[in-house]
Structure formats: structure tokens, C-alpha cells
## 1
Amino acid sequence: MISALPVGWRVERLLDLVSIRSGQVDPKLAQYRDLPLIAPDHIESGTGRLLDVRSAREQGAISGKFLVDPGDIIYSKIRPYLMKAYRAEFPALCSADMYPLKPRRGADGRYVLNVLLGREFTNYAVGESMRSGIPKINREGLAGYELPVPADSEQATVGAALGDADALIQSIEQAIAKKRALKQGMMQELLTGRTRLSGFDGEWEDVSAGDTGVFKGGSGFPTRFQGLRGQRYPFFKVSDMNNLGNETYMRSSNNSVSELMRSQLGATAFPAGSIVFAKVGAAVFLERKRILAEPSCIDNNMAAFTANATWVDSLFMYYVLQNVLLGSLVAVGALPALRS
């Protein structure tokens, strides 16, 4: 329900601001085959950014597509929780899995784009798709969405401000990507001994990973033990790697267990400094490695490496493992899994 609005604002239905373009064109025809063809997979989730630009001909398109003009908004109707929308900057085609939305007179396309990428609309769209039992929002659902709308000039100002924020975020991300590439190069040099830090000139020794520590899998974690906070040991699952603050050190867990529960589960309490990673399923190929910030348990979709402190520094081994593609070590089968 929309609360009290500022003076000059009004409540509108989404389709009062945009119209859904109708009529498909044949992407094999000469006037269309070299236009960019945009599908849901070409749009980054939640950002409104286009990830890939290829023509209809390059993609081998044969079925009907919608024609899109600059300024139109393309919204993915399937799996609305992915939040995929893009404001076209050039003439293009879009797939039938997307709604081509043309802003009506007085509606600012950038404002509408940010509405479609927002949490309020996404929650609505997901709810509509759940009611229909199909992971998509239909036209009736789209038509039923109401939103607060400011005057035309304020729409444009809000849209421009959010666009500036997106541009700033993108420039920061590009700077971070450059720093990461620089760090990757440093790792290649420093972790192989090709470049030595000042004050070190001794010989390196070739050893296997098993000589420097112990690899061990996690434990089963039945549902009845889950959901507790504030117990003795954090109990990490693969999904906890996504928690804010867990980018390097695992500090935030959605579950924890007492010493008694740990004993009943037969779970290992891995010491702080152990390096954890996914060992089963597609998550292996994400190549994420994290360091335990405190003694913790992990579930059986994860494994841990605990360094032998008399042989090697655990932080050094963390960076060594960052340079190892675990996905290349998986056993072939229906469910990818790391070999022991």
C-alpha cells in the first residue's frame, strides 16, 4: 500500500507511464538481421547494465522479435527475482522473453527503469509469478502495479541522479578490477619465487599441499539443528560465503551450535585460520576461498585446509590456494565434487 505522498506526486499504474510494444518482426530480414538482439542473459542482474551486444544474425535468430527504439525499456518477464531491465541506447531487437516498454509522453525512461530495478516492484513481480505458478510476470500483473510518480521535471531529475550514482559505481568497480588484476600479477610473481621481497634470498622447497597441512570435509547438518544464533561455534554453509563481511574472513554465520550439539553431530571444530571452500556442486567452479575468523564448523558441502604452523603460514597458503583452480580437480559425474 502506498503511504502519504509529497505535494505534487500522484499514484499511477505502470502502464499509464509506459506502453508495451506489440507486433514482432522477422530477424532474418535484411533490415533487422544486423540489429543488436537483446535477451535476458545479456543483461546484468539488478544493475540495468548490458553485458553483451551481438546482432540477430550472429546469434542465429529465426523466430519473431520485438523492435526497440532508443529510450525504450526492456524488462525480462521470466524469473523476475533476477531484476533484469535495460534502457536502450540504440535501435535493437529484444527476445519474446522480454517486455519492450515505450515511455509515454511525460514519463521519464530513467525513472521507470529504476522503478523496475527496485525492491518494491521486484517483490510485487515475484508475488505475481508465484500466484500464477509460472516463474514470469504476465501483462495483467504488469498492468496492476501502482507506483508513486512525481511531476515530469522531478522524474527527470531523480532519474538523472540515479544514473549519476550508477556511473560512479561503475567507475569504482572498474578501478577495483584494475587493482585486482595488478594483485593477480603480483601473486604470480611472489608465490612462485620469480620475484623476491627485500631481505629474502634463501632457496625455496618443492612440497605437496598435503605436506603443509590437512584437507578435511565438513559434516552433515540436519535441519533440526539449524537456525540458532549465539552458540559456541559458527556453523557455516556454502551460502554464508555471500554474507556481507565474509569476502575474505568468515565472520557472519546464519547458524551456530553449542559444544554439545557439535559433539552430537560429530562435527569438526576447525581452528581459526583454516581455509574453507565449496567441495560439491556448481559452487566449486566459483573458486571462492575464505579464512575462518574463529573456531567454526562447516557443512558437508564444504571442505577446509588447516595449515601446519610449523611448516607454513596460513595466510600464505590462502593466497596459494587463490591461485589454484579447484574446478580443474573435480570428479566427473552428475554432481561435480572435488576428489579427495
## 2
Amino acid sequence: MAGEALSGICLHCAELLASVPLSVLLVTFVATLSGLFVLFYITLYTVAPVPRKPFPEEKKYRTLLKDGSITEPLQLPCWQDALDAQKRPGRILDHSSMEDADLFISLVVPAYNEEDRLGGMLEEAVDYLEKVYGTVTDSVNGADTAAAEKAVRQRKPANGHANGTAAHRPVHDNKGWEIIIVSDGSKDKTEETAFAFARDHQLSIHPKGHAGPWTPGAHEGVRIPSGTIRVVTLTENRGKGGAVTHGMRHVRGQYVVFADADGASKFEDLGKLVAACQAIEDVQGRGVAVGSRAHMVGSEAVVKVCLSSFLSAANGWALTDGPCDSARNCATSSCILFT
């Protein structure tokens, strides 16, 4: 009896539904979906964490003086503060108030407990940056450096005219670089490792070379100018995204790129990113270039980085961007270059 009653109810409901105009059903369906979307958005907005503002001490950096001593915390430049000071209801931001770039390129490195891998990554980074954008080793590298710079400077003309800021004089003739290491609440000796690396490569006539993912063999390091490596300390962990954003807001370069401290990025490819960014810049010099490592799936360096990340995850899940569950996940990570 209960089954027959239930069948009768279902049949009655079906008849009522069939009598409803199709337009009413469509409106009801769309309204339901819209309501669910709004509910989902409100829920997401409610539970999503609000990024905290940086503490005053996090807007400072330390670096090395010419004698190798560590400076007291110094105030970081911040182009974001200049824009925030202009914010008014209905007011259009004037980007001309931003300070001009002091350097050609800045490298932001988010680092959380990276004392074991930071040395190799920095070795490969400074070797490329100093040879291509530096001034210390120009007389040593000679034609090789000049050729590398020429390849980086090339821009594609658009409609017969130089694209973007190519018509303007580049910052210091494409010279000058810095590395900003953002220690994201590290508990190990990440910062000490950075200072030790900078001191040796700044003071030693023959700096000790560190093996990296792309340069596993023994080699001599390159000398670097004082103050090119800056260390920013975040008192509380903000995650990889927060560390990258914090570093990006305090750069001095015309171009800025970020790279992970694990050394997965091949710095010899940086020139391709710069050239790609220059090729699409608008008249105000704005552009974004994104590089993919998808073509390197299965390469030894990528597999080593993924395995190392997986082992780190297994030993406490102390990762800024989660464990690596396959070589493809690591290989398809992107390097982004802003200007």
C-alpha cells in the first residue's frame, strides 16, 4: 500500500511538472543556479583568509657592506606605497610618481627553510646575472658577455617602430642586478647561508663554487659587487604567494623575475624571458612574460627537484607550495617576468 501511495504521489508530481510552461522551468533553473553561485561566493568570501599587512620590521632588509659585515636593517624601497598614497575615491592613479628603476633586473627568491639548496641556486643565479648584467667581470668575459647582452637587447619592431620602451634609453645600459631573498619565517639557517654565500663571492678572489641542479660539477664561483644580495625577513610565514608578492613590491629593477630556491629554473633561459617581455611591452613599458618547463619533463634536474620536494614533504610537509606528486607538476611550473 505504501508503495502504491508513493507511486501515486510521484505520478501526480510529474503531471504537475509537465503542466508548467517550459519558460517558467528555465527561469526557475537559472534562478536556482544563480542562487547557488551567490551562496558559494558569499561562503568563499567569508571563510577566505585576509592577507595581513606587513609588519614594520618586514619592510626592511639587510645586506653586506664592502668589508663583508652585515648592515643594520635598512628601509626597503616600495613602489606600492607610492601608489597607495594616491588612492582616493574616483581618482585615477598617476604612475609617473613612481621612482625610476635603479637597476636593470631584480630577482625575487621566496625561501622557507632552504639552507641546503639555496647555495646551489644562488651560484647559478649570480653566475648568469653578473656575466650578462653585471660590471665586475665584463673585462674578463669580453666578447662572450657582449654577445649575450646583444641577444637580450634585441626587440622586434612593431609597425616599423620599436615596441614598448625600446625607443627609450634602457636602465644603465642594461646593467645592474639584485637578488632579494625573502626568508618566509624560516626556522633553519637560510639567512646565514645567504650571507655566507654573499660574503665569500664578494670578498674572495677565488669564490667557492656551489653545485646546482644544472651545474653539478665543481667550478669556481664568480665575484659579485657588494649589496647585490638583500635578505628580507618575514617574522611570520606568509606562504609562497605572500613571500613573492612582498618581494615584488620592494624591487629596484626595471624588470623583475621570481625563481624558487630549489634551483629548478635554468637561469641561462632568463634572456629569453626578457626578450619575450620586451617584444610585447606597451608604450608605457608594461608587459608580462611567462615561461614553462613542460618541455623538460623527465629531465634529470626536474626529477631531482621533484624527488627532493617529495622527501621534504614526507618529513613534515614543510613546503610553501605543497608536495610534488609527479614530474609533470614540477616541470609545468611557471617563471613570470614583470616590467
